[in-house]
Amino acid sequence: MTVTRRWRWRTAGGLICLVLVAGGAMGCGKGGADSTAGSTANCKSVDKVNYVLAAASVTLGSVGYAQVPQELGFFAEECLDVTIQASGQTNSEIALAQMETGRFDVGVPATLSQVVFAGKKPVTKSVFFTAFTNIGLYVPDNGPVQSPADLAGKRMGVTSIGTGTAIYCLESARLDGVAANQIEQVPINSGLAAVAEALRSKKIDSWCGIDSDGIAFTNAGLPSHRLDTKFDKDLLPPGTLVATHKMIQERPDVLKRFLRALLKGYTFALAAPDKATAIALKLYPESKPAADNDQEAFKKALAIVQERMKNSRPPGYPQTSLGFTSDDALNRGIEPLKAAGLVPGNITLDAWRDLSLLNDVAKDFDPAPIEELARTYKAPSF
């Protein structure tokens, strides 16, 4: 059935948010009045879930786990009333600290930040891995840094010092013999256009960022590439969905329904990245890349979504299901962090990760109906 959409801006404590409610949605975007979203009309009850993204705003990179399940009603179909908020900064520690206060039930931070946080405070556990190869060091093709070893004495741009992304890049450099104190970290929070200009003008020599950043540099006419590093990106997934211990222990059925909605969202976005892109731009037109016309903007946006979808598939996919990776890979990925003193030497997987609920959901999940929906869905046009 169709539902009516109502749109308005809402802020809470400086956070940008959208609210998915029974029978409709309210959000940061300024989309149209019609929707194909599902409904909670057949639900005996509706459960509230508060959801935080470690980001300045809801971006194109989150289509699989935010915009698509929101717009297509996958949350509503699971009898969920989901509030999605961006933490306001690209800083996972802020999102995790907000979860510690009990403000949020689930969130998407960097895995490194989650492991470090869980090593100090038993508050959250990873319940789904959202990305596998999306963090890296980006450099101009003709710049002075062409390997992590070249970072000694150089300037590395970061969104902010101490983030999980920055830790990842510093660890990549450490494994090539460069200590963190040999690198000058330069925070840049004014957008990727400013980062591209800083790289072009040599104010920074490298950028510690994510897959969509590399696409943005290409879109901005800056020839660049991601460095190969010894910190194997397949070992420790850069992105993860986490849930509070309270959510896992006291509301496991609600969390399983939430995870099922995410599996639906990812399945749709993988099957139809162009339609997922159209959905994201409908909900959040402010995420549209700068371009001379809408057609060119859509092409740039699609490149970002395609890159993220490629990086959302776990090693061994489809034999390895979405959201999973092997214990062996995670253990090997944690070893360098133990050696660097970033996490306790005795930390175990059970201290920060619990995929048991995802396993319950995944074994009964049938992607075929969602893939058929992706084939027949009439996406918004641009």
TrEMBL record:
Range of residues in the leader sequence: none
Extract the Pfam families matched here.
Answer: NMT1
Q: Which residues form the SsuA/THI5-like domain?
A: 69-276
- Descriptive protein name: ABC transporter substrate-binding protein
Q: Tell me which InterPro entries the record gives.
A: NMT1/THI5, SsuA/THI5
Taxonomic superkingdom: Bacteria
Origin organism lineage: Bacteria, Bacillati, Actinomycetota, Actinomycetes, Micromonosporales
